[in-house]
Design a protein that fits this description.
The structure holds two protein chains of two kinds.
Chain A lengths: L1 E4 L5 H13 L3 E5 L6 E6 L2 H4 L8 E5 L4 H6 L3 H26 L24 H9 L7 H14 L1 H4 L11 H23 L1
Antiparallel strand pairs in A: 1-3, 1-4, 2-3
Helix pairs in contact in A: 5-6, 5-8
Chain B lengths: L1 H18 L12 H20 L9 H10 L4 H29 L7 H24 L3 H15 L5 H9 L6 H31 L8
Helix pairs in contact in B: 2-4, 2-8, 4-5, 5-8, 6-7
Classes of the chains: A alpha+beta, B mainly alpha.
């Protein structure tokens, strides 16, 4: 397996990782083939090597053999196509069952001159409708602008989150903000649905 | 000769795509991308069947839906599948985006895929919403009126956008025609294009570090 270290890892930090490997009973040698320093682990168990991930400078452990590599090498067809086909059949069955037990309603044509009922927003737009209601009624552009800004915020997430690791502990502010936003939208949606 | 080599090239490309190994992160029951793709296919087929009977006219739309539900053989089932399929698509597309968010797979080289995913969810919401309007009963007319008032209030682009969607000074025949065009022509192709782009993004060769 290959231990990939962060870009910019110093020689001293590399020695520190090699020292930790020796403590864990792993053997290997440093490689300098790209922009990131790497260590080719030539002896020791994968289970022990995974403990290296706790080190700050270790970015990833890439297996070069073993069941995972064999599994990753499986082709889309027929292996995954079969699984995808099974998912498709389950999905179609679920759709037929839902359509059979809960068929969609049939409305009547609107009569000209008759007042329209209060609009009933579909559940998937209820959170956004709830957000609109939070905004002051005057000036009327504040609410829709909030929605546009929310969309822009979600779209620009990769630009806003510059964390170097995908680990949750490295991204906790973004994760927390996202989950709070989600909870608020869910609450607004359920409140809108109940009203 | 040239068409033969073109065919061979296409077959080779399809063969290569089928033999491609699937990365671990795009597999398993929690990989909702495939579910969304399958649902889009189901919606495309059922939508094409529904369009055989649907009449996009203010005085005939509700009646054509009623005819489809009560008189056409299996019409109720096809409409049910279409209706539930669109709701499930919203659920799975949202779950897929959440999964990508929690796993942090929107960073670096995958940023494009995140943007495409968000745009695809927006298009799916647009498809579902325009689908609600097509029934053209009092509820959907009220919904269209309220939504266009909201769009009108967006600064700068809002009035133009609302005007394009409304197709006149008030909600009416042009609004239904435009909702139908958006639902049956514009948005499905847009979703298809975004899906293809997303698949290309995910399937293109990447280095081990994900870049």
């Amino acid at each position: 397996m290959i231990v990939v270290l962060e870009r910019g890892t110093s020689a001293k930090e590399l020695d520190g990782v090699l020292e930790r490997m020796r403590e864990l009973g792993l053997s290997g040698q440093a490689l300098h083939v790209g922009s990131k320093p790497m260590i080719h682990v030539t002896g020791g168990s994968t289970r022990r090597a995974k403990r290296l991930l706790a080190l700050e400078r270790v970015q990833a452990i890439v297996p070069t053999s073993g069941p995972r590599v064999r599994q990753e090498g499986r082709r889309f067809f027929p292996y995954h196509a079969l699984q995808a086909g099974a998912v498709g059949m389950v999905l179609l069955g679920a759709l037929v069952a839902l359509a059979g037990f809960f068929p969609p309603g049939v409305g009547s044509a609107p009569v000209p001159g008759e007042p329209l009922p209060a609009p009933e927003w579909p559940w998937y737009l209820a959170p956004l409708r709830g957000l609109l209601r939070l905004a002051p009624a005057r000036p009327s552009w504040i609410g829709p602008t909030m929605l546009v800004l929310l969309g822009a915020l979600v779209l620009s997430l990769p630009v806003l989150d510059r964390s170097r690791s995908a680990l949750a502990r490295a991204r906790w502010p973004v994760l927390a903000a996202g989950l709070i936003l989600l909870a608020v939208l869910a609450f607004l949606g359920s409140a809108e649905g109940a009203s | 000769m040239s068409s033969e080599s073109g065919e061979e090239g296409l077959l080779r490309a399809i063969g290569r795509a089928l033999r491609r190994p699937v990365p671990l992160e795009y597999r398993g029951w929690l990989a909702f991308g495939w579910t969304c793709t399958a649902l889009l296919v189901v919606l495309g087929v059922s939508g094409a069947l529904l369009s055989l009977y649907y009449l996009p006219a203010v005085d005939a739309a509700a009646a054509s839906v009623r005819f489809l539900m009560r008189e056409v053989t299996w019409g109720w089932l096809v409409r049910g599948i279409h209706s539930w399929g669109s709701l499930l698509l919203i659920v799975f597309a949202t779950l897929q985006l959440l999964r990508v968010f929690v796993a942090g797979r929107y960073r670096g080289a995958k940023a494009g895929s995140w943007v495409l995913g968000v745009l695809l969810l927006s298009v799916v919401l647009g498809l579902a919403f325009t689908g609600e309007l097509l029934a053209w009963d009092p509820d959907s007319v009220a919904l269209a009126t309220s939504a266009l008032e909201g769009t009108d209030a967006i600064p700068i682009a809002g009035p133009l956008l609302a005007g394009v969607m409304r197709g006149g000074s008030e909600v009416g025949v042009a609004t239904l025609a435009r909702a139908h065009a958006a639902h049956a022509l514009v948005l499905p192709w847009l979703a298809f294009l975004l899906l293809l782009l997303n698949l290309w993004f995910l399937a293109r060769p990447r280095r081990r570090d994900g870049s």
